[in-house]
Task: inverse folding
């Protein structure tokens, strides 16, 4: 999970489900899914090399957080 300051910085940049996935917030993920958020909604992010990556889904984001819950 990312620090709260880091997570807050991304909050307005990502759709709610993607943000919850990005920070590994399982309760928020569950709530967003219950509210019907689109699990296939893709976003564009920069990777660690600064290159744009398109088609990034919440599943991809959460899979890189080591979330088990």
Result:
């Amino acid at each position: 999970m990312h620090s709260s300051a880091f997570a807050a910085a991304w909050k307005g940049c990502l759709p709610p489900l993607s943000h919850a996935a990005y920070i590994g917030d399982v309760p928020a993920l569950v709530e967003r899914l219950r509210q019907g958020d689109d699990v296939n909604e893709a976003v564009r992010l920069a990777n660690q090399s600064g290159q744009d990556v398109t088609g990034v889904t919440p599943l991809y984001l959460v899979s890189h957080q080591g979330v088990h819950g």
